[in-house]
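Q&A log
Question type: sequence-to-structure
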Amino acid sequence: MKRLTLVLIALLSLQVFQARALAEGKSQNATPLRTKFKKDELSARLESLIPRLMADGDVPGLSIAVVRDSELFWHRAFGVKNAETKEPVIDNTIFEAASLTKPVFAYAVLKLVERGKLDLDTPLSKYLPQPYIENDERLSLITTRRVLSHTTGFPNWRPAGQPLKIHFTPGDRFSYSGEGFVYLQKVVEHLTNQPLDQYMKAAVFEPLGMADSSLVWIDRYEVMKATSHNTGGAPTARRKPPKANAAASLQTTAQDYARFVIAINKGAGLKGATVREMLRPQIWVNEGCRNCLNPRSAQLSTTVAWGLGWGLQQTEDGTSFWHWGDNNGDVHCYVVGFPAQKLGVVIFTNSGNGHSIIPEIISEAIGGKQPSIAWINYESYKSPARLFFKDILVRGMVAIAEFKLQRRSLPQAQVNRLGYWLLGRKRIDEAIEVLKINVEDYPDSSNAYDSLGEAYEMKGDKEQAIKNYKKSVELDPNNTNGIQKLKRLQEL
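Response status: OK
Response body:
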């Protein structure tokens, strides 16, 4: 009787949660861009909204800074650095900027362009004594402009243990690539004759007053940095970059990054013509396609483009610059700025769930249309899969059995993510039952069997892990992960 009462309470709570989510979803139409808000009104709205969103979205810690009239207008820290230690996030807490590193690097590169040390349209191969990759004449088509606008033809990152390749003629289309930024980093280090972190400190961080920012680990970060958390809410290993990475290694605070946004809004540190080129569309992105080595659609966006280091949005409010960050699925962050209105917002989180709540924070903080949010396409904290996940956390196998009984349907990718969320929470038995749904619904999917094999492996069920990895490799003989896992398990 007591168990039945608990189940009924859980069901009622879920229904209330779903009803609220539906009501909120209907109210999420774009609000007008807010340019005249008062600080106390903004503070009251966000200090009410953000803690609730963090709780609903399982985001342990967050830091936000709002720019208005090209000044640091308002900032706050919320939550905890680490879900286990409960140490609070404070104003100078260090977060990983992830790919928000790229616009800062682009700014530093454009300083070299203005000094005549680097040309936007000269092949990068002209600057290095040895070819960056061998036996591909298309390397001569890769320029600074094509790196900063993600049109190099490189993948985002090369497959582990494999050589870097050019996948299409540079300049043909957009395809997001961290590898391109690393290539340009080699050129910058060669031209400046110093490690990138030293050049960035002198060219960007010190002039802009970004005193807590660095591309490499600093000892004082030991007590300042927030711990990352996976989508299941578990803390992950702390990353301490020993070397700079132009694509992803920036360690910073929301306030420091807001100072960089202010510099872009003001056009500080660069000539007017350079800033205009930085914020001019160089290439329009493919709809629904970030890594477009093999684009699913040739349709180009009419609202989202790429400039030099920045993503760009075109709306009735004019051009705004933006970028998102995601390091290993356990750090999410976002920045957007409106030069004409001298407005912007920076949001850092220490969670792989950060992007599930960031759109609503932006809407409340500054408003305006954000077509980039739809383009990067992260799952909302109130999506059916997230609601199902929360239901499983409360009711366990009962929720899964009910889902199967009602034959409710979710896309394969969402069910797969749900399984990994549960694995992240060490709810391995529930994860196995969820991943079985994909095997049943998609019996020809190699990925479905691969994921189920991984769940059995985590449980320590060697026999079932081998069985599912074998099926995965049978369906896709090129599944290198499955092949490697099978070899290791069979050797044990």
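Response note: Confidence is low (pLDDT under 50) at residues 1-28.
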